[in-house]
Amino acid sequence: MGRTLKQINARLTKPQTDRHRLSIQTAKLVRRLQDASAGLVDMTPVQLKATQILLDKSLPSLQAVQVAQHQETPSIGPHEAERLFQEHVASYIKGLPEEKRRELLESE
Q: Where does the chain have alpha helices with state H?
């Protein structure tokens, strides 16, 4: 038999409950903005500004997100890039069934 809502809520901690509540409220705001942009509902400028303020508090701004690169991208020249590409294609072709490999090589 399934657990009751009371049993499920008893297992959630206060921070979990707050996070769930915030995510539901945020989803409602986003849905309302989507409906307004699709012309399904009308929103006054005051409602739009209030929604923006609430979303700014609950969602990170894309400008504020910092992307950290953990590994430096090696710079290679065009000849090395061509060689790596050919190795990759050859490896892919080698992994194909014999019939597909013949088809591919005959179509060139």
A: 5-11, 14-37, 45-58, 78-94, 98-106
